[in-house]
Write a structure and sequence with these properties.
This protein is an alpha+beta fold and 235 residues long. The chain folds into 3 domains: 19-89, no CATH class; 93-160, Signal recognition particle alu RNA binding heterodimer, srp9/1, CATH 3.30.720; 166-228, no CATH class. The protein has helices at residues 19-45, 53-60, 66-89, 145-154, 183-195, 200-212, and strands at 13-15, 92-95, 99-104, 107-112, 118-122, 125-129, 135-140, 159-160, 170-171, 215-220, 223-228. The longest helix is centred in the N-terminal third of the chain and has 27 residues, at 19-45. The protein is flat, with a radius of gyration of 23 Å.
């Protein structure tokens, strides 16, 4: 465990990805393929046998420079929409000597010093644990991990190099024994939500329901792993 000094009373640390940088990056990522699309269409038509020949011929029938300007604009617009979504989903963290604030998806969560027993990185997610070992928060995080760890330890919050309870997780399959009543049904519903379109929000809600039963969930690809905090369900 990486331990910081005693809680400080200095200025809070704020870490956030600039929204303009996220949006600009997405616009560029959309505009560049859009600008290259006419060239790709022409290369396809030059082949003896071209997949999607009909759409490629239709595309190249538009005169230049209108074609390239149009495809670039469409790509940039798609990137702009994606950028606004990514900026809305990006996590910002404000670290005070008395509490930690997480802001994401238009919402704000505050956790006092006494509520936080550990902070750590799990893949691309930031996780905060409470004294009962249940998760207070698990959010996708694009921040610089070293800066984040330094900010937390500088204000006296415990930073772990990995989940201190990682060895307690076991893979969930339908009918896994030893789970609280109702947990298996929630995990079935969550597994289905994670494979469907737009199921991320439902999966988050179901994670919260499982935490109230004392079940912590972590994901690896399409698999769910669980650990049970005995006698600590929330309701």
């Amino acid at each position: 465990m990486r331990k910081g000094p005693r809680a400080q009373t200095g200025r809070p640390a704020e870490l956030a990805e600039p929204a303009w940088a996220i949006v600009l990056f997405c616009v560029v990522c959309g505009a560049v393929p859009g600008a290259l699309l006419p060239l790709l269409a022409r290369l396809l038509l030059a082949l003896p046998w071209a997949p999607l020949e009909g759409p490629a011929e239709l595309l190249t029938s538009v005169p230049e420079p209108a074609l390239t300007l149009g495809t670039t604009a469409v790509g940039a617009l798609g990137g702009l929409l994606l950028g606004f979504t990514a900026a809305h989903e990006s996590l910002s963290v404000r670290v005070h000597h008395t509490h930690v604030t997480l802001a994401v998806r238009g919402g704000v969560q505050d956790f006092t010093r006494d509520e936080i027993s550990a902070c750590f990185r799990d893949g691309k997610q930031l996780v905060l644990l409470g004294p009962d070992s249940l998760e207070l928060a698990r959010e996708p995080c694009g921040l610089n991990w070293r800066r984040l760890a330094d900010a937390l330890t500088a204000h006296g919050y415990p930073w772990e190099q990995e989940d201190p309870h990682r060895a307690e997780f076991r893979r969930w399959v339908p009918g896994t024994p030893g789970l609280p009543t109702g947990a298996d049904a929630l995990l079935r519903a969550r597994a289905q939500a994670r494979t469907g379109e737009g199921g991320a929000e439902e999966a988050r809600e179901l994670r919260g329901e499982l935490l109230r039963l004392g079940v912590v969930v972590r994901d690896e690809d399409r698999r769910q792993y669980v650990r049970v905090v005995r006698g600590e369900g929330r309701g």
